[in-house]
Design brief:
4 copies of one chain form a homotetramer.
Chain A (H helix, E strand, L loop, with lengths): L3 E7 L6 H10 L4 E7 L4 H10 L11 H9 L7 E5 L5 H10 L3 E4 L7 H14 L3 E3 L7 H11 L6 E9 L12 H4 L4 H4 L4 H17 L3 E9 L10 E8 L4 E7 L9 E7 L2 E6 L5 E6 L4 E5 L7 H4 L12 H16 L10 H19 L5 E2 L7
Parallel strand pairs in A: 1-2, 1-3, 3-4, 4-5, 6-9
Antiparallel strand pairs in A: 6-10, 7-8, 7-14, 8-9, 10-11, 11-12, 12-13
Helix pairs in contact in A: 1-11, 4-5, 5-12, 6-9, 9-12
């Protein structure tokens, strides 16, 4: 079983995201770290990559050097993970896709809708994978929920209600902390704060489980800490293409909520609930029946849930394994087994459209607007 | 300790609401059932009242007969509960208030905002109590939450998020059941379905705990079961007079949610959560600190929580005792001890305004509108 | 509907137990308080009874006076509740039973096994009810559990595991507080502390749900606070007459557990769990199937659960309504409708036997002993 | 950063335990799989090892071949994991320890107490690590609990109550399934069934968190499925060396409990609760105070918790990361940083002693017996 070769851009020493990707990529032995440009300080990055086992000639100083170095190798990397600051995602992903690499891009995939559309087109043209790291969608019980909906187990979906609301930016005395402040500063974060950061995970989850797309939306944004230019709390109502009603709340000032990412899906013949802090259970109620607890690892789950679970029932699998599941799907897809659950550029651009058009809607006092990227209208 | 004399209109045999009021009124021995017009069929009502211990001459055939019979008695009832169909609340409450009786009216207090304003004025003029049965506000831990907010324990309130969403009307095959259908038929239910039925409890709760009023709102209504003319799902965003952001979701098609009434209050220095299905706990997180479980009956609670709790810590007290707490407050108020937590006509009319103006907002695509009754602008 | 006449002994002003009984007895309008000897200070008791609405000639100074006064009245009380200090339960209950009154005795019913057996015999001889207030058994979902077991829904019961463990006596600095200390002082509490106080509720619950009796037991007692002569923590293993294995843990030093009364019942084809702090749900798992949440008030419950529930599904009913359910069963039984779920003297004497023989077992290093009162061997 | 070289014995294709160890060993990049004897069928094992990336000359046919092949290599493996059938643990571990290898042995470490004592002595003599895979002890919040106890945060521990009770062997119709049956067959499982399989995890956890040892015990064993010769349910009461009272329940017929491993620790000034199905929270109640939820990843945890947590607060980490934490401690210990939390041979032999002496106690009707291995008396 030859391992796939993996390269990483960003995720240097001390970052949170680097270890999460390495753990995810390496956990199942499908990839090996073969190349990297891990830090914005070339020497630091080169040294760290080598400490992580990368050969000296593939420990690059920056992404351009890496692109140069890898493009003509026979043993070039099979996958490049882009975990750099948000504003650079587009340029780097574009360059690697065009050079024929598969890419996993951190979210948000791009800053603008136009950039997102361009990545969709490049991915289509080159036939290379442009995945986006909506890793929560890779929890086994989220996959189970999606499969149940697809199979009609809860009937036509009427209503989806989701939240990604935490309280970790709720302390006004900490609001000037640079690690917090940049998210609410348009110069650094773009048009949106909390919705672009967390809300889009919830929006993707709604589309993912319902296997449907958001068509129109109406938004209400608020800066609960008044000094913030961008929103730290948002409510977005939406409608999906098959008529499903959607409600999405996201907040970073909900003190006492730790992660606070949850989804409820209500169909004609049943309801589902999932909560990211207890990800190994899916709560299911058939209409007129009793609420049931579906456990990760139990017998009779859909394949999508079973294949992404490593240890027995009631042995919890957490966030690192969800990231690992994204890499499993990537390995399968690279090796020729299509994985249509893998979040890709089309998902990324839909998110960016929802962000931009939510901002527009909120500015217009909640007016209903088209939520779709122009290319998908 | 002479018991107060209590009369009831509506709540006949087989109704759900009758036993809840009798249990609430009688539980603490402050009231005795002295008069009643319990059924729309005069003879049935008279007979039932006597079976419940009402003297034959005070077992009335209808509310007009009861008003006639009671108004000139020396031992007239101290309190009249109005638990008749919604459309009759106004007329009956008005008549008894004007005749100098204290009234507890079921919700919704009136059908129109104008009627609501009239009851406020009559109550003021006569000096008689016109209470509204927002009984969830009388759970001890809801009172604790209100007292904590008033005392500044969570700082200025930034955000309040509430839901009253259940799934008991989610079965389309049962939608023609008359006990369900009327709620979504404008001829019987008025301008609103689920929001008028359940949403106003949540809206009242938000105002009650924050001790603040809703000033503006923007609404999104949906009929998830398409045959319904009125909404079975609604989202209302709002702002309160001191700037608090509000989010309220109400649904009757959320299959798997049983009662589904909950509230989260986020302030500058802490957050609170309360859930009506586990009403004896209040979840509190100080900013930067750990989440704590506040238990009904523990030492050191605010007086409003302590005085409305009957049995020791961790002995749960449920819905019947919440209704009983409304009657305790009424008994106190009638006997001269003001209870400013008691929901009254001003609360009732604010609810009706919110219902009507939410309908307007939803029709206008979520436009922000003034939520206040004209008399309070 | 004439109300039954009710008399109470003990439960004076300021006691916890008085209000709980009054609330329970009066909540459903089946009883009226007609007589009372409420306080060990005759004048105080007479005055308080009158304040509660008892006629002056039936407001007695002590229980003997009450027995004298009531026995020859035509309108004598239909039921006497004995809520006096434990050591007096036997004498008072015996006297009233022998005079032809129905009795509800607080737990523990007696101090010795012999006294308990005598009450069983007197109750049989006189045909009068001698009930014991094991009120937790009257929660609707406990009745549902019992009915499920009786109906074979979980097959033959293999194992029952129960606990009644709280932490309210866990503070050594408070151990000399007289309200705590007496429970661990043999001069006042008898042979057992925590097991006699709380453990017997759990033991009764196990027998009640399984509809079976404890036959043998082995006990381990500990005084976690060393200054205590009687146990504040105990484990009792037992076997029931049909071979069911039992495990019972009770503690008063389990800091952080508030009420901590729970039971798990495991049969050949399913398992059940119930927790007194969330009494409105019963957790059920069929063998090989998913865990389900059974809700108080849902459709299709057994009659025993449905008839003892007052308000709709997901409207919680708490401890006061469980006590009220005991009084409902008493009212039914007095009026001729047998209620075999009502805990009676046979249950009381079994508890006392278990207490005494557990003490013996613990002293003998956990030796297995017969748990049955001699009269039931 | 050179990776440590790791060898594995057992854990062949299709086993549950193999992937868990590989994931744990490889997740953090501290080890690489350098050698293996993975299957009892030599060719199958060799082939599988090579598929996992092991060089052909280190893909061995059995453990003796591996010992032979590795002992004289300069680049011999730094750690050998023994994940073979229970009866072979002793022989293999002994051989590798004596040859100067560090060993991680699956539980139970040995079959007899004597063998366990021998491993302790060999480990001492050779100075090599003989670790035992009590991996639940490596959850960050278990480490936090241990650190809190060590730091006196709950005062002297009075009482520890633990359970490892599931229902996965509760189906009598499945009892002859060979994967279930062997556990209750003395010929294959030795003297104990469920206690040896799961109970010892709970027993180790009690000792681990309390940092104390079990001194005496009294046991009650039952075969709830009568055809089983060994117990499927057991209760063990114990006392620790500093007087702590212990209660341990283990069962495999508790239908509805999925994993069911939990522990409660009660001290003079506080209580702790942890549950393996929600391993990222630790519940803490200071005496006289409110229950608090301690979250993995929150600020201010003890180092032992912080260093073993990879992703941010409220991003759950599950069972695979707990196993990985054992390997982290092993890597540290091999590289010279002592990790006294690592479970070692002394822990393994104490478990075996508890198993054997519990069996004795149960046979003697619950007699209290010394629980310690002779070498530690």
């Amino acid at each position: 079983m030859t391992k796939l070769k993996w390269g990483m851009i960003g995720g240097g020493e001390g970052s949170q995201i680097g270890p999460a990707h390495r753990l995810g990529a390496l956990a199942d032995g499908r990839f090996e770290l073969a190349a990297g440009a891990l830090d914005h300080r070339p020497e630091v990055g080169r040294e760290y990559a080598q400490r992580l086992g990368v050969a000296a000639d593939r420990a690059y100083g920056d992404w351009k050097e890496m692109l140069q170095g890898e493009r003509d190798r026979e043993d070039r990397v099979d996958l490049v993970t882009v975990a750099t600051p948000n504003s650079t995602h587009f340029e780097i992903s574009k360059a690697f896709l065009e050079a024929g690499f598969n890419v996993l891009c951190e979210k948000p995939m791009t800053v603008t809708v136009e950039e997102g559309e361009e990545l969709v087109r490049i991915s289509e043209k080159t036939g290379k994978i442009c995945a986006v790291n909506y890793c929560y969608s890779a929890y086994p019980m989220v996959r189970q929920a999606r499969a149940m909906v697809a199979n009609g187990d809860i009937g036509k979906v009427r209503l989806v209600v989701t939240a990604f609301s935490h309280g970790h930016h709720g302390d006004a005395t900490d609001a000037d902390n640079p690690r917090v402040r940049w998210r609410y500063d348009p110069a650094m974060a773009g048009v949106s704060g909390q919705f672009a950061d967390c809300g889009i995970h919830a929006l993707h989850m709604a589309s993912f489980i319902c296997n449907d797309e958001v068509e129109t939306l109406s938004a209400d944004f608020a800066s609960c800490i008044a000094s913030r230019e961008l929103e730290d709390d948002a409510m977005v109502n939406f409608r999906m293409s098959r008529g499903t009603v959607g409600r999405l709340w996201t907040s970073s000032v909900a003190i006492g909520r730790q992660h606070g990412f949850e989804i409820q899906v209500f169909g004609e013949t049943g309801g589902l609930r999932w909560f990211s802090e207890q990800p190994n259970q899916l709560i299911y109620t058939p209409v007129g029946g009793r609420t049931q607890i579906i456990e990760k690892g139990e017998g009779g789950l859909y394949d999508e849930a079973t294949r992404l679970s490593r240890v027995a029932i009631a042995h919890p699998e957490g966030f690192p394994m969800a990231v690992a599941n994204i890499y499993c799907d990537l390995a399968d897809a690279i090796q020729g087994q299509a994985r249509d659950s893998l979040p890709v550029a089309a998902d990324g651009v839909r998110s960016m459209a929802a962000v931009h058009y939510s901002v527009d809607s909120a500015k217009q006092g909640g007016a209903w607007v088209d939520a779709r990227p122009p290319m998908f209208r």
